[in-house]
């Protein structure tokens, strides 16, 4: 498994700031860890850079249209960066698709107080620290909503944290970290 320190060392060698047998100093490694986590945080806004799509679910509350999501929200889970697909499941295990709409379509729904047994529309407002899922029409039955979501990239808590990733990501991490390190003044960047 690749660790944060492995990625930092490889990136610094790619930049020519470390020789073949050298290792980063403690200060360089910590600066590299900060740069790595900053890079991963910025990648969280890029749907194609996130290799994790999770399916989660929650139960609709009768007469409730909005549900906060995130740590401490009504749906207490990792706050998604995006919801890509969703459906409602009834008590007979029948699934009904939910149309995911952007804000402008949501805003054009005239009467949001309409109720129905089976909702057909979901809007996700990506607020921070809590997002909000809106359901339309307002549900009259406590069915389950299943949704696919992308989440933030992982971050490294320390230099020895190992990362399990799909094929192809290690090179992307290594080369993009080298680019990120080039912006740090001092020994981390060549020159």
User: pLDDT below 50 for ≥5 consecutive residues: which ranges?
Assistant: none
Helix percentage: 25-40%
The total count of strands amounts to 11
Oligomer kind: single chain
- Helix-strand sequence: EHHEEEEHEEEEEEH
Rg calculated over all Cα atoms: 22 Å
Strand content: 25-35%
Strands side by side in the biggest sheet: 2-10-4-5-7-8-3
Distance from first to last alpha carbon: 31 Å
Number of helices: 4
The average pLDDT value, as a whole number, equals 89
Q: What general form does the structure show? A: elongated
Pairing-aware structural class of the strands and helices?
Answer: alpha+beta
Largest sheet entry:
7 strands, mixed
Describe this structure in words.
The mean pLDDT is 89. The chain has 191 residues and is of the alpha+beta class. The protein contains four helices and eleven strands. The protein has helices at 4-15, 26-43, 103-107, 169-181; strands at 2-3, 53-59, 66-69, 82-89, 95-101, 115-116, 121-125, 131-136, 138-139, 144-150, 162-163.
Topology:
Layout: E1 2-3, H1 4-15, H2 26-43, E2 53-59, E3 66-69, E4 82-89, E5 95-101, H3 103-107, E6 115-116, E7 121-125, E8 131-136, E9 138-139, E10 144-150, E11 162-163, H4 169-181
Parallel strand pairs: 5-7, 6-9
Antiparallel strand pairs: 1-11, 2-10, 3-8, 4-5, 4-10, 7-8
Helix pairs in contact: 1-2, 1-4, 2-4
């Amino acid at each position: 498994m690749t660790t944060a320190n492995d990625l930092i060392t490889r990136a610094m060698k790619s930049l020519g700031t470390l020789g073949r047998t050298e290792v980063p100093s403690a200060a360089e490694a910590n600066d590299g860890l900060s740069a790595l986590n900053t890079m991963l945080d910025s990648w969280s806004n890029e749907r194609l850079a996130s290799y994790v799509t999770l399916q989660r679910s929650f139960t609709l509350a009768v007469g409730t249209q909005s549900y906060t999501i995130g740590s401490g929200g009504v749906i207490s889970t990792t706050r998604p960066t995006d919801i890509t697909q969703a459906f409602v499941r009834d008590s007979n295990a029948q699934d009904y698709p939910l149309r995911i709409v952007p804000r402008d379509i949501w805003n054009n729904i005239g009467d949001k107080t309409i109720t129905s047994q089976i909702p057909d529309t979901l809007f996700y407002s990506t607020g921070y620290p809590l997002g909000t899922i809106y359901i339309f029409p307002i549900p009259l039955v406590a069915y389950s909503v299943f949704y696919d979501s992308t989440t933030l990239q992982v971050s490294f808590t320390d230099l020895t944290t190992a990362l399990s990733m799909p094929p192809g990501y290690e090179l992307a991490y290594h080369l993009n970290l080298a680019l990120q390190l080039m912006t740090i003044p001092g020994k981390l960047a060549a020159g």
